[in-house]
Write a structure and sequence with these properties.
Layout: H1 9-15, H2 19-30, H3 44-47, H4 59-62
Length: 64
């Protein structure tokens, strides 16, 4: 998520999706997900073997 508190209206508008992009996303939602051999669906057993790339942040670092 982007913190928009320090952004100008023009900067915020530049982040918005165009109508063409919205239409493309709507079409993509209607299509099924197809996995191929280069990108197979991950099983729960395989997901357990993944490692974190970045360390978890503490609540103090998050500003909570």
């Amino acid at each position: 998520m982007v913190n928009t508190n320090g952004m100008t209206k023009e900067m915020i508008e530049s982040l918005a999706f165009s109508e063409d992009e919205k239409a493309s996303l709507a079409e993509a939602r209607k299509r099924p997900v197809v996995f191929d051999e280069d990108c197979p669906e991950t099983t729960p057993e395989r997901a357990l073997k993944f490692r974190r790339v970045n360390p978890p942040r503490s609540r103090i670092e998050k500003g909570a």
